[in-house]
Amino acid sequence: MAGVRLENVTKRYGQKTAVKNLSLTCKEGEFFSIVGPTGAGKTTILSMIAGIEELTSGKIFFNDYEVSRLPPQERNVSMAFESYNLYPHFKVYDNIAFPLRAPRWNLKLSKQDERRRVEQIAGFLGIEELLDRLPQHLSGGQKQRVSLARALVRQPEVYLLDEPIAHLDARLKFSTQTLLKEFASKYRSTIIYVTHDYREALGLSDRIAILRKGEIEQESTPEELYNHPVTDYVGSLLGEPPMNLIDGVMISKENQTYFEVHDGALIRIEDNLVDAMKNTARQENGRVVTRLGIRVEDIRLNRQKLSDNSIQLPVYAIVQEAESSIVTFELKESFLHVRTRSDKGLCDYRLSEMLWLEFDQSRMFFYQNTVDLSKV
User: Fold this and answer.
1) What is the pLDDT of residues 82-130, one digit of tens each?
2) Is the pLDDT of residue 167 over 90?
3) Mean of the per-residue pLDDT values for the chain?
4) Cross-strand bridge partners of residue 359
5) Which domain holds residue 215?
6) Count of domains forming the chain
């Protein structure tokens, strides 16, 4: 296994910059995910690590050995794509075994050792009964697991996995995630995993890089990213529903600082948060405006007033889920979502009912507005 390091890597296609001056480090034996929306540059980064795409500038290292200019066949990596790329005239067994037979790796396995390796990974992914089938006789989910097995069967320095389970149904996706985590732990494999699904990344990764337009917005552990997003973009990308982002007015009166959540609905801001408010505030139409971020689970609801710092709003919508409910309130320019649980089961709040809301100020963040709330 090898660690992977990118130093000031840039990739341009003509006038378009896909990746801009990007630096990141995936440690040896680490499960490292890159998360971002379509077009953020995720696949381009993997392709540059694999040698499929040339760098415009910058350097890539495996451990301390620079591989920036090496062709793909001289980089000891294994890659799985969102598309299956299976050989239609090969049976599943031969598709999986193909990397073991490649002359460039000079593995020279016996037939018995090859079969053991193929059957081991096929059994691991639950596709051992498919080994004698041709790809055209497989479902989309089966093809994707075969593609993943082909990537995992060899033991390279680095595994590069590009949306490798995107086409699996929910049940298979969950079980395959579990298997991937087990594989990474068992073999201490270096895995760089690309996905747009934050749930996959949070569940699988040791560390995650959040990508935005070819640049890293934040890189940290899953816990840190979810609990302490440094920008509104990161907050909006992780969570279902995503973090509430509320544009409101900063008001000072009688030596206290308030945030206006909605027309006349004020939250008194604790002293330790005032500097964060001021540092992100902007002038807008003669008012001082900032953006509040708070997760849906960090707001309490009640029919009774919870404290002097509670605000009251009418219920706009309710979505009942298996173990909780999402209660939505309409604000001037956005919606406010609250996750609530009841010991009695589903919540019994009604549409248009006035409820009291209390924000957990230890879980509140203030941001400059870099995300268009109409698109969140």
Assistant:
1) 888 899 999 999 999 999 998 888 888 999 999 999 999 999 999 999 9
2) no
3) 94
4) 299
5) 4-237
6) 2
Per-residue b or e along 288-302, where b marks 16 or more CB atoms closer than 10 Å to that residue's CB: ebbbbbbbbebbebe
Cα 332 from Cα 376, distance rounded (Å): 15
Q: Could you report the per-residue pLDDT of 219-251, keeping only the tens digit for each?
A: 999 999 999 999 999 999 999 999 999 999 999
* Cα-based distances in Å from 113 to 6, 108, 110, 153: 36, 10, 5, 12
C-beta of residue 358 within 8 angstroms of C-beta of residue 310: yes
Question: And the tokens for 100?
Answer: 């073991």
Q: What are phi and psi of 142, to 5 degrees?
A: -65, -40
Q: Where are the alpha helices (DSSP H) in 126-192?
A: 140-153, 170-187
Question: Phi first, then psi: what are they for 185, rounded to 5°?
Answer: -70, -45
- 132 φ, ψ (degrees, to nearest 5): -95, 5
Residues paired with 5 in a beta bridge: 25, 61
User: Cα 253 from chain centroid?
Assistant: 41
pLDDT of residue 83: 82
Q: Which CATH number characterizes residue 48's domain?
A: 3.40.50.300
Last residue of a domain, one of 210, 237, 264: 237
State whether 207 and 282 are in the same domain.
Answer: no
Listed residues 196, 213, 237: the one ending a domain: 237
Q: What is the pLDDT of residues 53-82, one digit of tens each?
A: 999 999 999 999 999 999 999 999 999 988
